[in-house]
């Protein structure tokens, strides 16, 4: 894998086995959920804004603060994220 992607976001992955094209959705989602700002900018520069937005909107999971950041960056609304809708349909009970 070509840097600037760091082990910070991919602590559990062998970076030498990640294919930039085949694994692009995984890379985008992991970078936005756990990576740095510079890695996020790298994703947009390398994959394009539309592909990045779609990968994030279709993500099975993103932290809420990441979704909110993406709303600001890409002019989106929380209900556009599939993981946000899923979270609303299956809330975790208090004290769990």
Structure notes:
This protein is mainly alpha-helical. The chain has a domain at 21-77. Helices cover 52% and strands 0% of the residues. The protein contains 5 helices and no strands. It has helices at residues 24-34, 37-47, 49-57, 64-74, 82-89. Helix 1 packs across helix 3 (49-57) and helix 2 (37-47) packs across helix 3. It is globular, with a radius of gyration of 14 Å. The model has no long low-confidence stretch (mean pLDDT 88).
Portion of residues in beta strands equals under 5%
Number of H/I helices: 5
Structural class, by secondary structure, is: mainly alpha
Low-confidence stretches: none
The number of distinct β-strands equals: 0
Whole-number average pLDDT? 88
Sequence of secondary-structure elements: HHHHH
What distance lies between the first and last C-alpha atoms, to the nearest angstrom? 38 Å
Please tell me how large the radius of gyration is. 14 Å
Shape: globular
The helix content, as a percent range, equals 40-55%
Quick overview of this protein structure:
The chain has 96 residues and is mainly alpha-helical. Helix content is 52%, strand content 0%.
Primary descriptors:
96 residues, 0% strand, mainly alpha, single chain
SSE map:
Blueprint: H1 24-34, H2 37-47, H3 49-57, H4 64-74, H5 82-89
């Amino acid at each position: 894998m070509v840097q600037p992607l760091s082990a910070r976001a991919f602590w559990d992955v062998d970076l030498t086995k990640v294919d930039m094209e085949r694994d692009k959705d995984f890379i985008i989602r992991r970078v936005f959920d756990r990576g740095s700002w510079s890695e996020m900018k790298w994703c947009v520069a390398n994959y394009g804004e539309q592909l990045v937005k779609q990968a994030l909107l279709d993500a099975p999971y993103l932290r809420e603060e990441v979704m909110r950041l993406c709303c600001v960056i890409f002019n989106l609304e929380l209900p556009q994220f599939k993981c946000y809708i899923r979270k609303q349909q299956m809330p975790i009970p208090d004290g769990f």
